[in-house]
Amino acid sequence: MSFHFKKLLKATTLLTVLAVALVGCGSKSTTDAGSANALEQIKKSGKIKIGLMGTYAPYNFINDKREVDGFDADIAKAVAKHIGVEVEFITGEFSGLIEGLQKDKYDALVSQVTITDDRKQKMDFSTPYVKNAVNVIVKSDNTSIQKIEDFKDKKIGVGLGTNDEKYLRDVAMPKVGKFEIATYNDVITSLQDLNVGRIDATINNVFALKPLIEKNHFDVKAVGEPIKEDVAGIAIRKNNPELLAAINKALEEMKSDGTFKEIFKKWFDVEPNI
């Protein structure tokens, strides 16, 4: 082997070692950046991206000023304030919110996401911030439906992808017999269809329905006792304990300083139920 070739071989080997070292440093840097927890990233950006429907008054809706408003919106703003950031609201149909959370479109969901065992497998939840009683809703002149047992052979409307839809399919139908389920992306359309007789009944909670019924003069009513009670929490991606702890701390502080009670009475005109 010639002297010049040996020098060239040594130089090539050295360059290769340097290249590997540099790539290793680059990989470490990327890993370190990606390892920053969700709370740190939110604080660094100065905002938290909140997903909600925007069509579910009084929980969350677009007001006359084209702003996101409602109980959920006020809760989200107060939580963000306690964390020390601003809120960026991103609206979408409920059926796509959970998928959007998984794909990092949102940092959290504050849109009446009912806490269930199934959802706990996919998301982490804050402590509950509201309890909702779900009733059967029918036209005011309907006397044939008073309870879920009367749903057999009827057409029942429900929100697409909601816990109420799962309840109808997994609990009500096996219990009472076959009936048709019509799904909707917003509550107002289901009430419109109920009002004109396209469906026989729907299920929802009275807090959500009351303002819509009054504003649109729908000729409908709630009947019977509540068929179930649900609790909703703020949903985040799994394995973000720092963010979950910060949200829970904010909710606890809001209850201590009176903010939570003020928001609850503003939208529902009753004392907090949780």
Automatic annotation (TrEMBL):
InterPro entries xref list: Iontro_rcpt_C, Solute-binding_3/MltF_N
UniProt-listed Pfam families: SBP_bac_3
Regions that span the bilayer: none
Keyword Ubl conjugation: no
Span of domain Solute-binding protein family 3/N-terminal: 47-271
Record keywords, A-Z: Signal
Cleaved signal peptide residues: 1-21
Gene3D superfamilies in alphabetical order: Periplasmic binding protein-like II (3.40.190.10)
Residue ranges occupied by any Ionotropic glutamate receptor C-terminal domain in the UniProt entry: 47-270
Protein's recorded name: Transporter substrate-binding domain-containing protein
Organism: Paenibacillus alvei
